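Weekly sync, protein design subgroup
Attendees: M.S., D.O., the rotation student, P.L. (late)

Item 1: inverse folding check
M.S. brought a backbone from last month's batch and wanted to see whether the design step gives back something sensible before we order anything. D.O. pointed out we never logged the input encoding, so this time it goes straight into the notes. Structure tokens as presented (200 positions):
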């Protein structure tokens, strides 16, 4: 499990409220289309009241990104069942990860699509968390190939495809009859097994 660097995620209630307000604003208007004044207005506070918690809009985005990616990583790790067969493991990991993306689609939209607004050091840290999450899935794919449960020619390629399917949920969710996280979880778990040619 990852541990946020000191000072990245403030534990104060005011800071948490700022992050939630910023998520809503960024999800609606994009990072570039949102001002600190707009975020503060959602909480009926002045922009100056934000600065004791976050020195800039970018620092606020970084906190949101770190918190969101850390949560997503924990979801993937907690869903893995190392002692089980690869089919069960992949179904669990992708099902839970996809369900989380749907349940937290506004947060996911911000942390997935506003990465380029982060400064270089913050971007490097966040992409490190993303690589750790991808590695959880890659480990399961590799295990399935080794056991003969999966039949794919390219473990790296299929891992990237699985991750892409999941992180893109926030772009369109909810849509049509797919408006419940549980339905997304079930659908994507099945799609994942089909994608790896799982032998059942």
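Designed sequence read out in the meeting:
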């Amino acid at each position: 499990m990852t541990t946020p660097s000191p000072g990245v995620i403030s534990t104060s209630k005011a800071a948490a409220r700022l992050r939630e307000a910023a998520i809503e604003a960024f999800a609606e208007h994009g990072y570039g289309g949102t001002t600190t004044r707009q975020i503060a207005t959602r909480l009926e506070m002045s922009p100056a009241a934000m600065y004791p918690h976050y020195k800039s809009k970018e620092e606020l985005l970084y906190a949101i990104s770190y918190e969101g990616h850390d949560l997503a990583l924990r979801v993937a790790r907690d869903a893995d069942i190392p002692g089980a067969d690869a089919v069960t493991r992949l179904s669990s990991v992708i099902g839970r990860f996809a369900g989380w993306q749907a349940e937290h689609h506004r947060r996911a939209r911000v942390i997935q699509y506003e990465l380029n607004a982060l400064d270089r050091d913050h971007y490097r840290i966040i992409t490190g968390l993303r690589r750790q999450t991808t590695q959880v899935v890659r480990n399961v794919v590799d295990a399935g190939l080794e056991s003969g449960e999966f039949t794919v020619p390219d473990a790296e390629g299929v891992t990237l495809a699985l991750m892409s399917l999941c992180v893109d949920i926030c772009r369109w969710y909810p849509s049509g009859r797919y408006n419940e996280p549980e339905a997304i979880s079930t659908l994507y778990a099945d799609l994942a097994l089909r994608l790896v040619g799982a032998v059942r």
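Discussion: The chain has nine helices and no strands. The mean pLDDT is 93.
Action: P.L. to compare against the previous round before Friday.
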